[in-house]
From TrEMBL:
GO terms for molecular function: disulfide oxidoreductase activity; isomerase activity. It comes from Thiomonas arsenitoxydans (strain DSM 22701 / CIP 110005 / 3As). This is Thiol-disulfide isomerase and thioredoxins. Residues 37-179 form the Thioredoxin domain. SUPFAM superfamilies: Thioredoxin-like (SSF52833). Pfam families: Redoxin (PF08534). Keywords: Cytochrome c-type biogenesis, Isomerase, Redox-active center, Signal. PROSITE patterns: THIOREDOXIN_1, THIOREDOXIN_2. CDD domains: TlpA_like_family. One of its GO terms (cellular component) is cell envelope. GO terms for biological process: cytochrome complex assembly. InterPro entries: Redoxin (IPR013740), Thioredoxin-like_sf (IPR036249), Thioredoxin_CS (IPR017937), Thioredoxin_domain (IPR013766), Thioredoxin_ResA/DsbE_sf (IPR050553). It is found in: Cell envelope.
């Protein structure tokens, strides 16, 4: 009875959030506002199953940039953004990047497969957590919630609400992190651009004055 109460409470909160959420974007055209410092994630504690029923964890994706999307078929904003996630996976999915759409539907694999078939989702894999444990493990307050994870398995940023994931600003931001060598942390796009401009100005000043750049 207690577990049912907990599930209903979480589901109700998610439904309320779904009804109220709207597309969210930040300055400079970037979807995510990166944290100053990446956050550690309990990768091995985020457990789920793939379409074949194989047990997996987020640790299985370490070494790739990951766009983790927590969603459900009963969430209208989630449904709205799924085609753009499908396009994003088609465009960038591979050895350096993966969209991980993690469904919290109680119906599990069958429910998600039916949704994919009905909505012509052909590039996204199926990942399910019918226990909804991921909501607690990652402190998810509502669906959809999307977390950007770097190659080291650290959380770079997260956003709540639907997004057009195939728009150029999103693709550019993700490519920025994909380009970082494994084992190194990429600067946030805005910060990297600021450093680039500063270094250019320093080099120009040094050329003009004859001083060596610092």
């Amino acid at each position: 009875m207690q577990s049912l109460t907990v599930f209903l409470r979480r589901a109700s909160a998610a439904i309320v959030f779904c009804a109220a959420c709207a597309p969210t974007s930040w300055a400079a055209g970037f979807t995510f506002t990166p944290y100053p410092t990446a956050h550690k994630l309990p990768l091995s504690q985020v457990t789920f199953e793939n379409a074949q029923g194989k047990h997996m964890t987020l640790a299985d994706f370490k070494g790739k940039v990951v766009l983790l999307n927590i969603w459900a078929t009963w969430c209208p904003p989630c449904v709205h953004e799924m085609p753009t996630l499908d396009k994003l996976q088609k465009l960038l999915g591979g050895k350096n990047f993966a969209v991980v759409p993690l469904s919290v539907d109680k119906g599990g694999i069958y429910t998600v497969k039916s949704f994919y078939d009905d909505n012509f989702i052909s590039h996204l894999p199926i990942y399910v957590d019918p226990t909804t444990q991921v909501l607690d493990t990652l402190s998810i307050l509502g669906t959809p919630t999307t977390i950007l994870i770097n190659k080291q398995g650290e959380e770079i940023a997260r956003t709540m609400g639907p997004e057009d994931w195939d728009k150029p600003a999103v693709i550019a931001q993700i490519k920025h992190y994909m380009a970082a060598p494994a084992g190194s942390a990429a600067k946030p796009p805005q910060q990297a651009r600021t450093v680039e401009i500063r270094d250019t100005r320093v080099a120009t000043a040094a050329t003009t004055t004859g001083a060596a750049p610092e």
